[in-house]
Design a protein that fits this description.
By secondary structure, this protein is an alpha+beta fold. The protein contains eight helices and 19 strands. The protein is 31% helix and 24% strand.
Length: 412
């Protein structure tokens, strides 16, 4: 691959052919073009290999790229997609650098424009309209891929014959929380998910989402409702609850500093879980309309917050691929005998955003491997639906069964 110089008009036309960049203002296009690099690949030349570190997306100006992944049935990589002029490849890398998930090869002489992660940082400061367009496109791509992954998880659970999420509610409704008292003064710089925002940016957040105090048991959103807001936990704790196989199960406890439900700001998909306050809590509720107003004005808070959402999604997607592959390749095993004196399998994941170190290992209960697998896959579905739960904790996931509840009787 060699570096080349392209005429500015050629580069401008190439940028305008990319759908998510087509509506940029002339000034933004000029700013973007001035920062892009141009590359030329010969026929059969590799742009990058699967597993290589990546930090840039590529816009195809001319030619054709073949996207290939390793095949278990052949020594040859299998083509899974082709990329033509006006299309892009490697989007996630310019948001959150990481290993490439596929090999990309030019099948004819091809010219590309390169948008690196470092260039994105410059654009966020000098041409935020461009950064918003790129981050928005990456988030939409990720939301589609995550929904596909959740469908694969559902199919795997059905294949194993384990309980899947129950259908909650007949008609999804908008999940807008009513009530809540004024939260008073609180230092948002101490809130983990907001530590990288400056005073001006936090003032914009407080204006759009004033801190409010909620009592124990308040339901912030219900599973199945249409999401239209995210929740920033400034103080206190909330439970992430899901209905699985007719039983309400607590998947995790999120503590001060957590951000939950941010996917609702960019995707109107149904909520993957119910969020319930545990004890008194002070929470900022940022609604999609308010966020979009800030984003349309390219306010620094919204630009940075959107990037945070995109990074969270990219990391969830990469980790989900690894976790899902590892889980589904495990063979089914019989139930294990309980360990004398061991705690029952009713522990839940407690997530402190500021914690460090490995979570403790829990003693195994009497569940079969398939049952435990189903619970972990259900947890993974919820995590992917909200982009806030940690997939790294999936080995420690145990569901809490409320007292007095039993699984529904199976029909013969």
């Amino acid at each position: 691959m060699s570096t080349i110089r392209l005429h500015p008009d050629t580069m401008r036309e190439a940028v305008r052919r990319v759908p998510f960049l087509a509506r940029l203002s002339p000034a933004s296009i000029e700013a973007l073009v001035s920062l892009l690099g141009a590359r030329r690949l010969g026929e059969d030349e590799v742009l990058y290999k699967e597993g290589d570190p990546g930090d840039a997306l590529m816009m195809v100006v001319s030619g054709r790229l073949s996207v290939r992944v390793r095949s278990t049935a052949s020594t040859q990589d299998a083509e899974v997609a082709a990329v033509y002029p006006g299309e892009v490849v490697g989007e996630m890398a310019c948001v959150d650098p990481g290993p490439r998930s596929a090999t990309v090869v030019a099948t004819k002489i091809t010219q590309v424009l390169e948008l690196t992660r470092s260039t994105m940082r410059v654009l966020m400061s000098n041409a935020p309209e461009v950064a918003v367009a790129v981050h928005g496109a990456v988030i939409q791509l990720l939301s589609r891929r995550l929904r596909d992954t959740n469908s694969r998880i559902e199919a795997e659970m059905e294949r194993r014959g384990v309980a899947t999420a129950s259908k909650v509610g007949s008609v999804p409704t908008s999940s807008i929380v009513a009530g809540g008292e004024e939260g008073g003064r609180i230092d948002l710089k101490r809130v983990t998910c907001l530590k990288d925002f400056d005073k001006r940016e936090l003032e914009a957040l407080i204006k759009a989402a004033p801190p409010r105090r909620f009592a124990d048991g308040t339901v912030l959103c219900r599973e199945g409702d249409v999401g239209d807001s995210c929740f920033i936990l400034a103080r206190g704790c909330v439970a992430v609850v899901r209905n699985v196989g007719g039983m309400e199960r607590t998947l995790a406890l999120l503590e001060t500093g957590a951000l939950v439900g941010q996917m609702a700001l960019v995707d109107g998909a149904p909520r993957s879980a119910t969020i319930r306050v545990k004890g008194d809590a002070i929470i900022l509720i940022l609604h999609r309309r308010a966020f979009e107003q800030l984003l349309n004005a390219a306010h620094p808070f919204a630009v940075k917050f959107q990037e945070q959402i995109a990074i969270a999604g990219a990391r969830q997607m990469r980790l989900a691929n690894v976790r899902f592959s590892g889980l589904v390749t495990r063979p089914a095993q019989p139930a294990k005998a309980p360990i004398p004196g061991a705690r029952p399998a009713s522990d839940i994941v407690r997530m402190d955003p500021a914690r460090s170190g490995e979570p403790p290992r829990l003693a195994p209960g009497t569940k079969t491997e398939d049952q435990r697998m189903g619970e972990m896959l259900s947890y993974m579905q919820t995590a992917l639906g909200e982009w806030n739960l940690s997939l790294e904790d999936i080995e420690q996931v145990r569901f809490e069964t409320p007292e007095g509840t039993r699984p529904p009787a199976r029909r013969p």
